Amino acid sequence: MTQTKLWEDVPLPVMIEAASPGEGTMRPAFSTERGVVYQGDCMQLFAALRDQSVDTVFADPPFNLGKDYGNGAEHDELDAPNYLEWCSAWIEEAVRVLKPGGAFFIYHLPQWAYRLATHLETVGMTFRHWIAISMKGTFPRGRKLYPAHYALLYFTKGQPKTFNRDDVRVPVPLCRHCKKDIKDYGGHRKYLNPLGLNLTDFWEDTAPARHTKFKARWGINELKPLIPARCIQLTTHEGEVILDPFAGGGSTFEAAEKLKRMWIGSEIVDCSLIRDRFERNVPEAQTGLPQILSGLFKQPNPQLSINRTLCHRSSKKSIITAPKNVLNGSALHPSLRKLNQL
Predict the structure, then answer these.
(1) Quick check: pTM over 0.90?
(2) Cα–Cα dist 72/262, whole Å
(3) What residue spans define the domains of the chain?
(4) Which tens digits make up the pLDDT trace of 100-136?
């Protein structure tokens, strides 16, 4: 039996045209009955959203490493003051649209994460955890230690309104050979929670996505949906709203869709890759415009269009992340692919 593709009645050129830069309004580039993503600057999306309208924000911004994503490395290589100014602008907008008790996750390099954490405290957010995401497979640079983790900052807007500890428990580790417990737990094995062990702030099962099942963009290091999925499960209930201002290949949206959460976000280029991810990994998703999300906007409308006016907090500098891959005719040379993933 042949699997029917989602949204095959919507030609791809129409989608791209609907989301192309221009004056006036910005229409959804891709949507399901649970979520919508816009192709454009995240500050345009923030400008359209009401205060205290979303439940959790998950952000995986550009790392400012000078990578050439197909539009020139200079767009991802700002000096530190300008990069931090840009980060401060979108962070403050994310805090504004977050509900009281809502959660804010930022995935970043430690060298930037500690500065962003300081700014989050400055704007009144409450520190919860610095989660270390194991990311082995890189290499030592110069006179430095082996970089083996990325930072996942977890803050809340005041005391957390939701903390679903039991939803993110992990299985008791077993020996892969004899299938018995690796630890004896001090003789207290019988007292372990039958749902599994408590999730710690060190995640070892989150290696970078390498397989096509998890990646939407070749040559770009992407998160597995497992990472945003845990954040979503921990801090929200079904039907609540997840915002991702840097959608990338759509990992956050895939996780939210599967967990029956509403989702909204933006990606400055190539939202067709998110559509492809859904066709591949979430075939049960239904096409449509999630009318319930219109309540998030300052000026609701049935088409979920938003005004292209930038937020007043937009930085003078901006970072554009066009994917450099075979889809836009600029494939990475094999010898450079590994370096680009570091």
Answers:
(1) no
(2) 34
(3) 12-340
(4) 999 999 999 999 999 999 999 999 999 999 999 998 7
